[in-house]
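Dear all,

This email documents one entry for the complex benchmark we are building for the journal club exercise. For each entry we list the sequence lines for every component of the assembly. Then comes the predicted three-dimensional structure of the complex as a token string, followed by one or two observations. Please use this as the template for your own entries, and keep the labels exactly as they appear.
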Amino acid sequence: QKEVEQNSGPLSVPEGAIASLNCTYSDRVSQSFFWYRQYSGKSPELIMSIYSNGDKEDGRFTAQLNKASQYVSLLIRDSQPSDSATYLCAVKIWNYGGSQGNLIFGKGTKLSVKP
Amino acid sequence: EPEVTQTPSHQVTQMGQEVILRCVPISNHLYFYWYRQILGQKVEFLVSFYNNEISEKSEIFDDQFSVERPDGSNFTLKIRSTKLEDSAMYFCASSPGTGTDTQYFGPGTRLTVL
């Protein structure tokens, strides 16, 4: 059973602080990793993708991947109240029959940034 | 910027009725997906579609479900005989197929089965 685990939170941080979101996955052949943001009642919105071990930075966001530990994280620097949302970790396992493979989502971590 | 669109935004139906949810993927994308999210739960994969056929489906995607790409732009999900437990948000997603495997999600259709 392929699973993606996230702490459901809520994670509460003050405005301007760093928010740290964590995710673990069960399947060692997972190849692509994504962070999506989901506001209440809305669809997942892509924040970042990461494929290789190490860090990947995009503006205030940094994704970190450690395949040996089956762990992926997202850091949000200088958190803003508008960052308050649920953050979904998603993992893709490529298939061998011509499909790019489906995403397996975690339950998401609810982040609240207090002004 | 191109977006995935979905219609309707909200569909209310009676148990046992058929519903068709519609999606227009991003132009030139090759891979299409349906996911669903029951209120308060995780996003779950239903089916993927490539080259005019289903490439993968989950256990949720039973005989009550079907997908079609009736023309060059629309991608539909049909639920033949809706059940109360089909009430959920249904998201369509598409992926280019070349250069990136990122999936872009539409705004969703909220299906309410009474």
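Observations: Chain A has a mean pLDDT of 91. Chain A is about 0% helix and 55% strand.
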